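Q: Hi! First time asking for a complex rather than a single chain. Here are the components, and I think there are two in total. Is that enough to go on?
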Amino acid sequence: MNLRQIPTPKIILTIILALFVVKGAFLSLLIPLFQNPDEPVHYGTVQHWAEPKEKSWEMRSYESEKYAINPNDIRTTNLPEETVRSAFLAGFDEVKFEKQNIQNFSTSTTEQEIRTNNWKRYVDTSPSAVSGTTSVYYLLASWGERLFSHNSIFTRVFMARMLAVILGFGVILLSYATTKKIGFSERNSLLFTAIVAFQPMFSITAAQVNIDIALVFAFSLFFYVGVVLLKDGLTWRRALFAIGAALLGFFSKGPGALLILVLYPLFVFGAYEKLHVPVKKFLVSLILITIVLSGVAFLVIPGSYIVSITNSSAQSKFSSPIKSLSKYLDKTIRGSELRDTALSYWGNFGWLDSSISDWELSIIRLIEVIGFVGTIWYLLSHHQLSYLPEKKYLVFFLGLIIALELAIRFYDWRVFDYTEQILIGQPGRYFLPNLIGHLIIVITGIGFLLRQESLFTLTLKAMALAMILLQMNAIINVIIPRYYL
Amino acid sequence: MNPSQVIKNHLHTFLFVLFSLGLFGIFFTFLGNFGLGESGYNFLGKTKKITLSPGIPITQTFTAKEDHMHQLRLVLGNVSLKEGEYIEFRLQDAFCRETLAMTRLSQEPRSQGVYTVFPFPVIPHSQGIHYCFAATYFSSENRKGDKPTLSATEDPDLTFADRTLSDGNKNKVYKSQTLFLRPAYTSGSLLGDLWQLVLRLSQYKPAFLKGWPIVFLFGIITLGSIALAALLIFIKNSQATKDHS
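A: Yes, that's all I need. Here is the structure of the assembled complex.
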C-alpha cells in the first residue's frame, strides 16, 4: 500500500473524528465518578432538569434543616440524594484535590450499593445547590437522563459525558470547516484539525458533565459563521445564522452573552462591505443606529440582568474602583498565576490535581509566544502570504480572544471587589471557547516566520504529532497513575 | 527524484521515527513506574512535611497486606536536589536494621505531590510481614530553608495502627501516623498486572463497558493514533491545494 496515494482528505477527516469519539468514550470512563470540576453540581442540575413537571414530593426548607454546608463534605450539599450519596460512597471528598488519594478498589460492595440504589433523583431542599444557569447542555443532558432512567447512575453519568463528546465532535468539524474557509490548504486544514482533536484539555472538557463544552461549541460555530460572513459577505441568511450561534452561546453559559455584543461589529463590517456607501455617510448612519440600538437595549434588557453580571449592587471593600482594580491586577497578573491558567488550558485534569509536566508546558508556551509574535508581525507587515489566512480573519479571532479575556477578568474582578478574594479565578478551561481562533493565530504566526509553505506544512505535521503524543502521555502517564495506581 | 524530494522524504520518515520513539518512551515510562498501590485507605486530615536533614534517616514501619510486594510508592514534598545530592531509600526489616533493598534518588520527581516509585525485587511472601522504610538525604552543603521534605499525616489515625513514623531529625516517634506511602504488589506477570489495572478502571463504571471493552477502546486509540500519525505525515496534498470557493 502506498500511503502517499490512498488516503483522501475525507478518509483522514473521518479517522480524526472517529478517533476523537473513541478517545472521548475512553476519557469519559477514565476520570472517576464526579472527579471533573463541579461535576456533582452539573449532574445534580441535569437531574433537576429531568424532574417531572408535577412535583409529587414535599420540599424541605434549607433553614429549617439547619444544615451547615461544608465544602469538604459532599453530604451537606443540597443536590439530589442520588448524586450526593453516590459521590460520597465513591470517595468524592477523599480523592478531590488530594493527589495522594485514590478510590477504594479493594471492595465491590460500595459499587453495588451505588448501582442498585433507590435514592431520590430530585431536589427536595430549598434553596438547592443546583446551577441557576439556563444552558442548552442541561436541556439535552436531561433528555438523556430521562431516556436512560432505568440504567445505573454510572451509565447515566457516562451518557451525560458522551453528550459532551458529541458537542466536541461538532467543534472538530467546525475547526476543519473554519480553516478551510479562511484559506488553509486541504492538507493544512486536516493537520490543524488533528491538533485541535488531540489538545488534551479540550479533549477532557469534551468528556465531562459540564456546560463549558456547550460554550466551546457555540464559540466555534460563531467563529465559522464569522469567517463565512467576512469572506462571502452579509446576507439575511448568514445574519440569522450568526444570530443563532450567538444565541446558542447565550444559552450555554454566562460568557456566551459576549457573542451577542460581537455580532454588532461583525454586522457593521459586513454592511460596510456590502453597501459601498461613502465612509462619511456610513459613519454618520452608524452613530445614529448605535444610539438607537443602545436606547432599545437599555429599555429591553432587564436591569436585574445587568446588575447580576456586573455585581454593581455589591458593596465594594475598597475605597475606590482604581484601588480595587490595581489590587486585583497585582494579585492576578503574575507569572505564577498566568502559568496556572496556561497549565489548566493545556492539561490539568480532574479537580486541577493532575497535570502535564512543567517542561511540556514550557515548550508549549514558547511555541505560543513565537506564534503570537509572528502573527503581530504579519498583521503589521504589508505581506499577504498565499498559504496563510487574510488578516481580517486574524483580527476577528484576536478580537474575540481579547473580548473573552476582558469579560472573564471583569467578572472575576467584580467578585474580588466585594469579597477581597479571588473566588472565580481564571482556570484555563474558561478560555477554551477561543481554542480554534487561538490555535489559528499561533500557527499563522509560525507560518509567517517560516515564509515557505512546505516548511509551514512540515511544522504543522510536527505539531500535530506532538499533540497526539501530549494527549497519549496525559492519558498514560498522568491520569491513569493519578487515579488508578 | 530530485535531491530536495529525497531530503523531504527522509524528513518525513525521520518525523515518523521520532513519533514512534516518543510513543515508545511514553509506554516505557508508564511500565517503568507501573505498580498497583494498595487501596482501601487514604491519607486524610492535615498534612505535615517531614524535613530531611543530611545523614539523618526518617523511618516508617508498615505491614504488607499482600504477597509479592515489589514497590513502595511515596509522595515526596518539595524536592529540589542539587548536583551531587541524593536521597537514599531503604526497605528494611521490622526493626529498621537489616536492609532488604536500596535505591538512590538523585533527580527531582516529575511533578510535585505525585507518587515516586521505589522498586525492588519481588518479595514472594510479604503478606502480614512488618517492614521498615527509611529515607536518608545526603548533601555536602547545609541547606537551611529548602531541604527536601516528605509528606505525612498530621494526626494519629487508627487506619494506620500498624504504622509508626520516626523523625530522626526531631528525635520524635509518631504512632499511627504515616508518610504518604503505599506498598504495591504484582501478580507475577505484566499481563496479570495490566489486567488488574483494567479491573480497577472497570470499577464504578457502566456494566457494559467493564473489562475487555476498556482494553478495546484503549487499543483503538493507540493503534488509531499511530495510523493517523502515519497518514498525516505522508499525506499528499490534493489537487485542490487551496479552497478559494
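A: Chain B touches chain A through 69 residues (CB under 8 Å). Let me know if you'd like any chain examined more closely.
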